[in-house]
Amino acid sequence: MSHPHVGYALDDDSDDEDEGYTAPRPRIPDPYDDRKRPSIFIEMDLPGEEVEHGAVGGSIGEADAEEAVEEPHRRPRKRPRREPRREEPIPVCLLMRLPLEIKDEIYRYILVVESPILVHNSWKRVYARKRPGIETAIMSTNKTINSETVRILYGENRFLYRLRDPPMTRHVVNVEELSLADDGFRLAADDGTSDTSNDEFDPGNGYDDADTEYFPRGRDDRINIDKFRPYFRHLIVEAERNRYSNETQLHMADAIKIFTAQPSRRGKTRAGAAKTSLQTFTIRIAPQYGLNLTGVANIVDQNHHNFTFVNFFSQKSPVLDAIKSLSCQCIKVDLLTSYLNGGHQPAISRLTIDMHHLRFSQLAARQKTSGNGEGIRQDFWRNDTQVLRQRFEGARRSTAALLNLEKHVFDACERHIDDDIIQRYQDELDDDLESMDWEPQDDDEFDNDTYEEVRLGFDNTEE
């Protein structure tokens, strides 16, 4: 049996395709929602088709809706909470977390050497052939490490300044006077050359023998004295055996005065405070014996022994004037006795002067001359009578030791002179002088038994 009515409906359905019906708007599912939603494809009823659709079984949309209602909804899943993005912190060096005492030990292992660091050019350059081989790359890590390592590098190393620099001004040399002087002198004159040719300073070969491992840029041998002057603690200035002239004496005084300059009011350091605070300042000389030496102080008379370098410590010498203004804990004068006793022990006769209490008197003098007192660091013990009396007594002993330093140096030379040395000079055996090749050792090679120390200016010293 045919169904004309149904066929007619199908024909109408095909004819009404252009009556303006459009597809429903698509629905984009939420990836975080697990609930089952009713179908979005709900067929819309056309007019006049209620019976047919009802006979078939009802509307498709109604069946889907009933299934959606009958099916229990699942509990929605909680969306994970997104944490805001945070910038990853820069990893901190583990060295910065260590205590300062442990870091100082690490810095000492890297930056401190046993032998003195040889310098020249007014403490501003390191010898090209005597570089210590210190790796300073750690100082460029950051500002904190730089400030911690600077005091270790300059404060715990010893810096040795050998007076070998060429003179700043050129003078006309009288050849006739030099020949006469050679006849009168028992020693070779201060010719401006080095005692040992191996480490002679040559301004022309500053970087020929540089160690490229530690000084690759050619500028690492320079020291900024104006910037790092307050960090120095242990200094040595040395005049070798043939450098006893008046020019060398002025050169030594200039080398000491570099660390005696006081800051002005416009400087960063407070007025009245010392810009440097040295612990030890050592003057190393190698005196020799001779008779009637020109320029050498005669302590008693012409018949008495004469020694080189004694006049460096006279009361009117520029060296002693520079020492008096030096802010230092103690002054050491090392006499290398190898050219006096023929290389026997002791190898060094040391004079140690206590300068601790003299620093307070220097500070008080600067405070008096600093004007109205603005920015002056006040002394905590300025009202303590007992402390002031103790300082005064200590400063008096130190001043007396400095004024008598020439005599102490002369007595030390007299004490160590060997009779064979005197006989050689009296017999005018100039050839024997050249054979006495007792080169003094470096300071770190001496044992405690090779020292003979005389303490001056201390409480237990009887002058």
Précis, in short:
By secondary structure, the protein is α/β, with parallel strands linked by helices.
Structural notes for this entry:
Residues 74-83 have a biased composition (Basic residues). Residues 1-85, 191-212 are annotated as: Disordered. By secondary structure, the protein is of the alpha/beta class. Among the domains are: 31-80, no CATH class; 166-200 and 233-456, no CATH class. It has 15 helices and 10 strands. The chain has an 8-stranded mixed beta sheet with strand order 2-1-3-4-5-8-9-10. A two-stranded antiparallel ribbon has the order 6-7. Strand 4, helix 8 (246-257) and strand 5 (278-285) form a beta-alpha-beta unit. Helix 8 packs parallel to helix 9. The longest helix has 19 residues, at 385-403. The radius of gyration is 46 Å and the shape is elongated. The relative contact order is 0.09.
Salient structural properties:
463 residues, alpha/beta, eight-stranded mixed sheet, two-stranded antiparallel sheet, 11% strand, elongated
If helices are DSSP runs of H or I spanning 4 or more residues, what is the number of helices? 15
Largest sheet: 8 strands, mixed
Instruction: Assess the beta-strand content as a share of residues.
Output: 5-15%
Q: Structural class of the secondary elements?
A: alpha/beta
Termini, distance in Å?
A: 151 Å
Strand order in space, largest sheet: 2-1-3-4-5-8-9-10
The succession of helices and strands, N to C, reads: HHHHEEHEHHEHEEEHEHEHHHHHE
Specify the overall morphology: elongated
Arithmetic mean of pLDDT: 71
Low-confidence stretches: 4-13, 49-60, 169-218, 263-274, 294-303
Helix content: 25-40%
Radius of gyration: 46 Å
- Counting DSSP E segments of at least 2 residues, the number of strands comes to 10
